[in-house]
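ok trying this again, last paste got cut off
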Amino acid sequence: MSHEPQDALSRTALGVFRLNGQFLAVSEKLAEPAGLTAAWWQVLGAVLPEPLPVAGIARVMGITRQSVQRVADLLVREGLASYEPNPAHRRAKLLAPTEEGRAAVHRIDPGHAELAALLQRELGGPEAFEETVRALERLSKALEAVEGAGPGHP
């Protein structure tokens, strides 16, 4: 029996774990001059388009609700976000960025744009960058589709 799929899965997981660490490190560097952490930036970024409940942010980000709740509470305490009433749910308030929070995220834009340009060049241009993004999105969707499947599961 070939171990190629299993080896590919192991290499993929190790690569993704390494990428996660690399993205966290570069995100910390980008966010620091704006007075944010990578986690603060991530949560604020999730609610820039529209306010979301903490559980919704956690779903989008693929992390635990408790982790998002801790960051959301810190953002509110620091005046970077606020809790708003949620018409769909009385107890699950919506997290929304304040003007100060939006301004902090926008201070990251120049460094973010510079990093994007550098990565695009390193990957070989816009098409190669887009191909990389599509491959990661396909991998995420495939993993979602098989989540929970494993020995003894269909």
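PB: full thing came through this time. DSSP finds six helices and three strands in the chain.
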